Amino acid sequence: TRPETGISHDPGLFSPDGDGENDYLTLNMKVEDDFGLAEWEINIFNESGILFKKFSGKGNAPKELKWDGTGDNGELVESASEYDVQFSAVDLAGNVSETAADKISVDVLVVVTERGLKMRVSNIEFDFGSSILRKRGTRILDRVYQILEKYSGYSVVIEGHTDDIGEEEYNLKLSEKRALAVKNYLVGKGTAPDRLRYVGMGESLPFYPNTSDENRRRNRRVEFLLLKEKPVK
Q: What's the CA gap between 164 and 154, in Å, rounded?
């Protein structure tokens, strides 16, 4: 008989950005087996289905694990993204059990960089080739607005970025239009206009080499740079 397995997590919104709130995710494992386990494994996949983090061990699985959001490649989870986690176990008789995917939701992260506080989001979605926000993009910007209210003493530079597909001049103009669309949405929510500046960066500052579809997806992003200064009109 296969082991009976289950997995859950806490908190509901994971935010590993070092601010002391929900910085660690607790993975809770449930195993029932009459004879004990030979080995166990936890796999965490990003939205593209790529393996991001693996935990594994011999013998019985722990009841819980703490995770700081860092993947096996040393990178932090993506802002405003979702990850699937699966728990599998093999008992001493060789029977294998695997849970259904448990979905982890990641908050918009405010991280410290060499340029100051920054939010980097690759999932603010627009219609193809346009600056029209899709529904997921507006949901994420609703959360960005809430965070900006917490950092009310900061001015914000909104940077639009693209991948390298298409003409460079076209990408530059598109990124500027998208950054402006983001600014206008936040102003419509209630952010003071004089706190916000916007700029299109086009394909000039890729965060990853444009060598794969996954890297290009993450290079199509909006960054919010928070500056402790007086608003610039």
A: 31
Beta strands in 60-108 (DSSP E): 64-67, 82-91, 96-98, 102-106
Specify the amino acid at residue 2. Answer: R
Q: What is the largest CA-CA distance in the chain?
A: 70
Whole-model pTM: value is 0.91
State the helix-helix crossing angle for 135-150 and 168-189, rounded to 10 degrees.
60
Phi-psi region of 96 (alpha: psi -120 to 50; beta: other; left: phi over 0): beta
Position 225: which residue type?
Answer: L
The mean pLDDT of the chain is 95
Dist. CA 120–CA 110, nearest whole Å: 8
State pLDDT tens for residues 54-94: 999 999 999 999 999 999 999 999 999 999 999 999 999 99
Identify the band that residue 230 occupies on the pLDDT scale cut at 50, 70 and 90.
low
Task: Say which amino acid occupies 53.
Answer: K
pLDDT band at 166 (very low <50, low <70, confident <90, very high): very high
| Separation of alpha carbons 165 and 216, rounded Å | 9
In DSSP notation, 138-173 reads: HHHHHHHHHHHHHTTT-EEEEEEE--SSS-HHHHHH
